[in-house]
Amino acid sequence: MTQVTESRSGPFFEAHVSHPGAVRDHNEDAFLARGGEGFWVVADGMGGLADGQWASRTLARELAEAPLSGDLERDAAAVAEVVRHANFVIFKESTDRRNHIGSTVVALLVRGPRFAVVWAGDSRLYLRRDGVLSQVTIDHTQVQQLVDAGYLTRREAADHPMSHVLARAVGTHAEIETQTLIGEVQAGDLFLLCSDGLPRVLEDEEIAHELESGNPSAMVRRMVDLALERGSPDNVTALVVGCVDPSAALPAADLTPVFGGAADEEAVRDSPAAPVEPAPALAAPAARKAGGAAAILAVFIAALVVTALGVCAWVLLPRLRRPAQAASQVVVVQGAVPQAALGQFEAALGGVGCSWLQIEKIAQGPTGVDLAITGVAASPSAVQSALQAAAASAKIPVADIDLQSIATTPPGVCSTLDAMRPFRAATSQTGQNLTAAQDSFAVMKQADGKEAGRAIVTVTPPPQGGFAIAQLSADDGLGLIAPDPQTFQTLASAGVAVSKVPDAGGYRLQADYAKPGWSSVLLLTGQGPFPKALLTQSAGARSAAWVSQFASAARAGGWRVEMAWYEITTGGDLSVIPQTQAPSVNALLPATNGLLAGKATPKKPAATNGVVVYDSDANANAPTNAAPAGKGATGKAATSPPAKGATNSAKSDIPL
User: Fold this and answer.
1) Chain centroid to CA 48
2) Helix (H) or strand (E) holding 408
3) Does 474 score more than 50 pLDDT?
4) Of 241, 247, 466, 555, whose CB has the highest number of CB atoms within 10 Å?
């Protein structure tokens, strides 16, 4: 008999089950239910017995501590940020264990009349409304990209031999990009979160039939029992969440999270097939024997990853729950270049006009130094030339200059950037204190009724000394958010635009933008005052008088400037759906997701975010393909190998 847990919290009733499946003797799936807070998660680990369980359990346990405020957009951004943090934890452990470890994730948040889903991978969210079942999420798989491009139908994709080769997963790459969708909730809505073990053996029509009647416990039991009868070769996890009345407030209920599958440490520990493992922290590398060509290949690939990114990455990468200290997005492998050469690279970036750039990665490769640069620039070729000149001056051989994460500078902000750039902080040496929750934010109707693109940025202000926080919009409008630490603390106490990240040294800041385009939040450190008149400027080019005043004040106060860049956008390939027209949920869903979906119109295949693609079924996974997604204008050094994802990446086994 399948073991099912259930609960009722105010407007929600729910049931959850996780089973190893009909073939496997261990469970790498995990789930988390925070029903009293309107939050549910399913994760599907990969990498083999101990590693897959560790990955999904780590992800679920991290999300159990996600700070939730009750605001849908803010909570969705917080969940995405926790997933990003867990990605670094799992990726670091993957390099230590020399095995490709990862996990999918799908997370549901319900706040009153709206819901948000955050996901990466092929674990799914379905919605049953008025008798119709729709798949809300889109699988992050290579085959799904062919469906999106119109090369395959959904039926052909389901039978494709590589239908479970992931294009995105948590922990398989140094960076992760989650996808977010926001929609409406109606009374009687029924949500299903599940790992891919369920839809692999059950058609959508069968899932819809099993969700037609009975209580949630009966629904999940019937689905899992049917999957087992079909001989499910993979783990099966299902969470059913019903919404009785979305207008009802969440009661002051028990907020103890419910864990299941690999996240239930006692169940995993008691399993005869599972070794006893530490709680989700950085476990010691697992000793294992090399067995078979797949294992050898996995070790070889892991070694390449370690060489390219460096085992020191974890020490320098951002995280949520650490003591107050500078967090950094920079991967600088210690000893890759002398400190003097690092300074020369920093100075070279500072000399590129109409730009704001930082070193994202610098590591020693087999034939020279690998550099990756992020930020905004009007001319990537100028960035390339400046770095090549710095490398020649420092007598440092450069093998690769990766400019794919550089976006095109909004033309109106050049005068502001040129005035501030001489005072920019060297973040590759000091660490970065600003981290955007995602690369883009949609202009939408916010909870307060305001139409804005609301960016969410984690700020780690200096423990001592003065600082100010400002924002720069794409039209060169400059606004002051907090002119001093006292005002910043007042905002944090109010908990509106600024809120403290629990058990961490950082704060979560929201900045609203009315205009689309690449925009940023600025952190200015040094001796105040930071005059409001100087840092509050209307759109348009800065006057010579303003430039002179800023330079004088910055020199006198020893100011240093950091910026976090992201795109404010109103449509296109947005992952967050604008709510200004209040469309129905079914209207939000792509045509290829419905039960009666037709063939999609051919379009450009989606990028894979630079993630090395792994087969979620394999215990020792080899990369299949990689296709990076740049933020904007891109460039490659003339001395560089072919562009990443092209001839220098592993060939795809998927026929195009």
Assistant:
1) 24
2) strand 398-408
3) yes
4) 241
Distance from first CA to last CA of the chain, Å, rounded?
44
Dist CA 392 CA 49 (whole Å): 49
Percent of the chain with pLDDT over 90: 36
Under DSSP, the state recorded for 45 is E
Q: What is the 3-state secondary structure (H, E, C) of 202-249?
A: CCHHHHHHHCCCCCHHHHHHHHHHHHHHCCCCCCEEEEEEEECCCCCC
Is pTM beyond 0.70 here? Answer: no
In whole angstroms, give the CA distance from residue 612 to residue 419.
39
Beta bridge partners of 110: 115
Give the per-residue pLDDT at 15: 92
* Helices 49-63/72-97 angle, 10° precision: 150
Helix-strand-coil split of the chain, %, nearest 5: 30, 25, 45
Distance of CA 459 to the CA centre of its chain: 17
Query: At 154, which amino acid appears?
Result: R
Q: Answer whether 21's CB lies under 8 Å from 233's CB.
A: yes
Residue 76 · residue 299 · CB < 8 Å: no
**Nearest CA to 413 among 378, 438, 441?**
378
The residue with tokens 């799908």 is: 106
In the block, residue with structure tokens 């078979």: 292
Tokens of 213: 């009647």
Q: What does each C-alpha distance from 255 to 18, 65, 251 come to in angstroms? A: 21, 11, 10
**Contact, 182 vs 580, CB < 8 A?**
no
User: If residue 400 lies in a helix (H) or strand (E), which one and from where to where?
Assistant: strand 398-408
CA distances from 332 to 10, 133, 248, 351 (A): 49, 48, 50, 21
Local structure of 588: helix, strand or coil:
helix
Q: Counting runs of H as helices and runs of E as strands, what totals does the chain give?
A: 17, 27
Model confidence over 308-367: pLDDT tens digits? Answer: 333 233 222 322 222 223 333 344 444 556 777 778 888 899 999 999 998 887 777 678
Banded pLDDT at 647 (limits 50, 70, 90)? very low
507 forms beta bridges with 459, 500
At 135 the pLDDT is 92
